[in-house]
Protein backbone atom coordinates (compact mmCIF):
# COMPACT_ATOMS: atom_id res chain seq x y z
CA UNK A 1 0.00 0.00 0.00
CA UNK A 2 1.40 3.39 -1.01
CA UNK A 3 1.34 6.02 1.70
CA UNK A 4 0.27 9.59 1.19
CA UNK A 5 1.80 12.53 3.08
CA UNK A 6 -1.07 12.62 5.58
CA UNK A 7 -0.17 9.10 6.79
CA UNK A 8 3.48 9.95 7.41
CA UNK A 9 4.29 10.89 10.99
CA UNK A 10 6.89 13.26 12.44
CA UNK A 11 9.52 10.52 12.66
CA UNK A 12 9.07 9.65 8.98
CA UNK A 13 9.54 13.31 8.01
CA UNK A 14 12.56 13.62 10.32
CA UNK A 15 14.21 10.59 8.67
CA UNK A 16 13.49 12.02 5.21
CA UNK A 17 14.97 15.37 6.27
CA UNK A 18 18.14 13.69 7.53
CA UNK A 19 18.60 11.89 4.24
CA UNK A 20 17.95 15.03 2.22
CA UNK A 21 20.90 16.60 4.02
CA UNK A 22 23.13 13.51 3.61
CA UNK A 23 21.89 10.57 1.57
CA UNK A 24 24.75 8.43 2.95
CA UNK A 25 23.80 8.98 6.58
CA UNK A 26 23.98 5.69 8.49
CA UNK A 27 21.16 4.15 10.47
CA UNK A 28 23.24 4.75 13.59
CA UNK A 29 23.63 8.46 12.91
CA UNK A 30 19.93 8.87 12.01
CA UNK A 31 18.99 7.06 15.24
CA UNK A 32 21.29 9.27 17.32
CA UNK A 33 20.03 12.50 15.77
CA UNK A 34 16.39 11.52 16.25
CA UNK A 35 16.78 9.83 19.62
CA UNK A 36 15.37 6.48 18.48
CA UNK A 37 16.86 2.99 18.31
CA UNK A 38 18.90 1.89 15.29
CA UNK A 39 16.28 -0.81 14.67
CA UNK A 40 13.51 1.78 14.55
CA UNK A 41 15.49 3.96 12.13
CA UNK A 42 16.25 0.95 9.90
CA UNK A 43 12.65 -0.34 9.94
CA UNK A 44 11.16 3.08 9.20
CA UNK A 45 13.62 3.84 6.40
CA UNK A 46 13.13 0.43 4.79
CA UNK A 47 9.35 1.00 4.89
CA UNK A 48 9.76 4.43 3.26
CA UNK A 49 11.83 2.81 0.51
CA UNK A 50 9.42 -0.12 0.07
CA UNK A 51 6.45 2.29 -0.12
CA UNK A 52 8.20 4.29 -2.86
CA UNK A 53 8.32 7.46 -0.77
CA UNK A 54 12.10 7.80 -1.05
CA UNK A 55 14.78 6.47 -3.36
CA UNK A 56 18.41 6.64 -2.40
CA UNK A 57 20.38 7.92 -5.39
CA UNK A 58 23.65 9.67 -6.17
CA UNK A 59 22.91 13.20 -7.34
CA UNK A 60 25.50 14.75 -9.63
CA UNK A 61 26.21 18.37 -10.50
CA UNK A 62 25.38 18.36 -14.24
CA UNK A 63 27.93 21.07 -15.07
CA UNK A 64 30.77 19.27 -13.28
CA UNK A 65 30.23 15.98 -15.11
CA UNK A 66 30.02 17.38 -18.63
CA UNK A 67 26.48 18.60 -19.25
CA UNK A 68 27.08 22.07 -20.72
CA UNK A 69 23.62 22.71 -22.17
CA UNK A 70 20.73 22.67 -19.70
CA UNK A 71 17.44 23.85 -21.17
CA UNK A 72 13.69 24.21 -20.77
CA UNK A 73 11.59 23.19 -23.76
CA UNK A 74 7.94 24.13 -24.14
CA UNK A 75 6.17 21.55 -26.31
CA UNK A 76 2.91 22.30 -28.09
CA UNK A 77 0.89 19.19 -29.02
CA UNK A 78 -1.76 19.00 -31.77
CA UNK A 79 -4.21 17.38 -31.61
CA UNK A 80 -4.44 17.51 -27.83
CA UNK A 81 -5.53 13.87 -27.75
CA UNK A 82 -1.90 12.92 -28.48
CA UNK A 83 -0.52 14.64 -25.36
CA UNK A 84 -0.18 11.43 -23.30
CA UNK A 85 1.44 9.58 -26.21
CA UNK A 86 3.92 12.42 -26.82
CA UNK A 87 4.71 12.66 -23.09
CA UNK A 88 5.35 8.91 -22.88
CA UNK A 89 7.73 9.06 -25.86
CA UNK A 90 9.63 12.07 -24.52
CA UNK A 91 9.84 10.55 -21.01
CA UNK A 92 11.91 7.68 -22.42
CA UNK A 93 14.68 9.97 -23.69
CA UNK A 94 17.78 9.94 -21.46
CA UNK A 95 18.35 13.71 -21.70
CA UNK A 96 15.03 14.45 -19.96
CA UNK A 97 15.36 15.42 -16.29
CA UNK A 98 11.84 16.80 -15.79
CA UNK A 99 8.60 16.41 -17.75
CA UNK A 100 5.15 17.74 -16.85
CA UNK A 101 1.79 18.42 -18.43
CA UNK A 102 0.85 22.08 -18.07
CA UNK A 103 -2.30 24.18 -18.10
CA UNK A 104 -0.69 27.22 -19.65
CA UNK A 105 0.25 28.35 -23.13
CA UNK A 106 1.95 25.07 -24.04
CA UNK A 107 1.10 21.44 -23.34
CA UNK A 108 4.30 19.89 -21.97
CA UNK A 109 7.21 21.32 -20.05
CA UNK A 110 10.48 19.49 -20.56
CA UNK A 111 13.82 20.14 -18.86
CA UNK A 112 16.84 18.51 -20.48
CA UNK A 113 20.53 18.16 -19.82
CA UNK A 114 22.69 17.84 -22.93
CA UNK A 115 26.44 17.67 -23.38
CA UNK A 116 26.64 20.65 -25.73
CA UNK A 117 24.56 23.09 -27.73
CA UNK A 118 24.85 20.84 -30.78
CA UNK A 119 23.56 17.92 -28.71
CA UNK A 120 20.66 20.13 -27.58
CA UNK A 121 19.87 21.11 -31.19
CA UNK A 122 19.81 17.43 -32.16
CA UNK A 123 17.52 16.65 -29.20
CA UNK A 124 15.07 19.40 -30.18
CA UNK A 125 15.13 18.19 -33.79
CA UNK A 126 14.44 14.63 -32.61
CA UNK A 127 11.40 15.56 -30.51
CA UNK A 128 10.09 17.88 -33.21
CA UNK A 129 9.37 14.90 -35.48
CA UNK A 130 7.39 12.96 -32.86
CA UNK A 131 3.81 12.53 -34.04
CA UNK A 132 1.69 15.20 -32.37
CA UNK A 133 4.49 17.68 -31.68
CA UNK A 134 3.29 20.86 -33.35
CA UNK A 135 5.87 23.36 -32.09
CA UNK A 136 8.66 23.73 -29.53
CA UNK A 137 10.20 26.74 -27.82
CA UNK A 138 13.58 26.29 -26.16
CA UNK A 139 15.04 28.42 -23.39
CA UNK A 140 18.69 27.75 -22.57
CA UNK A 141 19.66 28.08 -18.90
CA UNK A 142 22.88 30.11 -18.71
CA UNK A 143 23.43 29.48 -15.02
CA UNK A 144 21.48 27.42 -12.50
CA UNK A 145 21.44 29.10 -9.09
CA UNK A 146 19.52 26.45 -7.21
CA UNK A 147 18.65 22.86 -7.93
CA UNK A 148 17.10 21.15 -4.93
CA UNK A 149 14.50 18.80 -3.55
CA UNK A 150 11.45 20.28 -1.80
CA UNK A 151 11.95 21.52 1.76
CA UNK A 152 9.91 19.12 3.92
CA UNK A 153 9.66 21.80 6.60
CA UNK A 154 7.11 23.56 4.41
CA UNK A 155 4.59 20.79 5.14
CA UNK A 156 4.38 21.57 8.84
UniProtKB/TrEMBL annotation:
It comes from Spirosoma profusum. InterPro entries: ArsR-like_HTH (IPR011991), AsnC-type_HTH_dom (IPR000485), Dimeric_a/b-barrel (IPR011008), Tscrpt_reg_AsnC-like (IPR019888), Tscrpt_reg_AsnC/Lrp_C (IPR019887), Tscrpt_reg_HTH_AsnC-type_CS (IPR019885), WH-like_DNA-bd_sf (IPR036388), WH_DNA-bd_sf (IPR036390). This is Lrp/AsnC family transcriptional regulator. Gene3D superfamilies: 3.30.70.920, Winged helix-like DNA-binding domain superfamily/Winged helix DNA-binding domain (1.10.10.10). Pfam families: AsnC_trans_reg, HTH_24. Keywords: DNA-binding, Transcription, Transcription regulation. Residues 8-68 form the HTH asnC-type domain. GO terms for cellular component: cytosol. One of its GO terms (molecular function) is sequence-specific DNA binding. GO terms for biological process: regulation of DNA-templated transcription; response to amino acid.
